[in-house]
Automatic annotation (TrEMBL), chains A, B:
Similarity remark: Belongs to the PhoU family.
The PhoU domain, residue ranges: 19-103, 121-204
A Pfam short name: PhoU
Main location class: cytoplasm
Oligomer status and interactors: Homodimer.
Biological process according to GO: intracellular phosphate ion homeostasis; negative regulation of phosphate metabolic process; phosphate ion transport
Originating species: Nakamurella flava
Alphabetical UniProt keywords: Cytoplasm, Phosphate transport, Transport
Protein name: Phosphate-specific transport system accessory protein PhoU
InterPro entries, per database record: PhoU, PhoU-like_sf, PhoU_dom
Length: 228, 228
């Protein structure tokens, strides 16, 4: 019985790691679909939703059963509770990647992103994918040093978002209202994706150290829009 | 011991109810601050952040201790796990209300919302406040019928958001890019606020019935932007 329990607990951790990889892939492909107006790739990302939803549902079910049947304590209890939070963050990251893919699908065959904005969206995509990958490593290796570094990388996303808003609100912006509205929402999706990756890392810190059970688990959100 | 435990469990429920009231007030005041360019009211909403954060932290701490020390089962276990989810949703609702207040502050003394858009924002505010109030009732009365009705009201928010995007993307829109970008993000905040209120109600359904432990707890998000 004990052994089966340890196996289920370990599975729960692996589950989170696999979901990190899936969300990373989803955001990478969604960004590619967006930048290349690639409808087939967008559809493929959108279809991945079901898998992340059912992975979250399974993980929650396992976590709940472990609580009910095994009454874990100390590190094991933190591992179960953390897993419940982490899969919620990861499902949300998947949903945000899918929002990006849906923007690509909605405007197809038109391009959503004007040429002058492409480099910033590309970088936002890269930062988001990197954060998801790093969150996966933090989770697998329980690496606290890496967890703390994620916070710094998240600042990059906020900087990119500010850059984007400065571009859109400048008098030289000649792409009109529609693309600006799309880009404002897209940048919000990337920003929130990054926030959730940082939240995953923070939950691992709690898992390992017991610090901040209900502490500051929601990363500060950037002040998205420059004064104007 | 048992008695103290029941008291703590009941406190956890009251905690959620109180947080519902706070987020409802926060969104009502934030919307008023936005529509009236009322800086003092906006600052007051922004200051309420700290209280919601610490209430969430306390509730998580209590929930974690109950799991560790009492190993609850059945309905009690569902109540503890639900409370952890519910306070997270409520903290997020508070954060979204604060985003609305920050938009008012950022543009002060200018008005963020052009005259033609005011009625829709007013209605989004009212729907959001109503959903938070209803979620509080669902929580206090464990009222499943009311919980199910919240889903329908959430559709209203999606309709309002679509109306808003239709206005902004019409050729007659003459308020420029800046207000459109602000409004796009604001409408997203209202929409997500409503989604989290529905999520609270769904967690109460789980608490009472045990259905959907890891099921469909994230409401479907509306297709925010019309085809154009």
């Amino acid at each position: 019985m004990r052994q089966a329990y340890q196996v289920r607990l370990a599975d729960l951790g692996d589950h989170g790691y696999l979901m990190c990889q899936l969300t990373s892939t989803a955001l990478r492909d969604a960004t590619k679909a967006l930048l290349n107006a690639d409808l087939a790739l967008a559809e493929q990302v959108i279809a991945s939703d079901v898998r992340l939803d059912s992975m979250r549902a399974n993980a929650e079910q396992v976590a709940f059963e472990l609580l009910a049947l095994e009454a874990p304590v100390a590190t094991d209890l933190r591992a179960v509770v953390s897993a419940m939070w982490i899969v919620a963050d990861l499902q949300r990251m998947g949903a945000l990647a899918i929002h990006v893919a849906k923007a690509a699908r909605r405007r197809h065959p038109a391009h959503v992103i004007p040429v002058g904005v492409r480099p910033i969206i590309e970088r936002m995509g890269r930062v988001g994918v990197h954060l998801a990958d790093q969150a996966g490593l933090v989770l697998r290796e329980r690496n606290l040093e890496l967890a703390r570094r994620l916070e710094v990388e998240d600042d990059l996303m906020d900087d990119l978002q500010r850059e984007l808003f400065t571009l859109m609100l400048a008098p030289e912006w000649d792409n009109g209202v529609g693309p600006a509205v799309d880009i404002a929402l897209l940048s919000r999706f990337y920003e929130r994706f990054a926030d959730h990756a940082v939240a995953v890392a923070r939950r691992v810190v709690f898992l390992v150290t017991g610090e901040n059970v209900g502490g500051d688990t929601t990363p500060a959100e950037g002040n998205y829009a420059p004064e104007s």
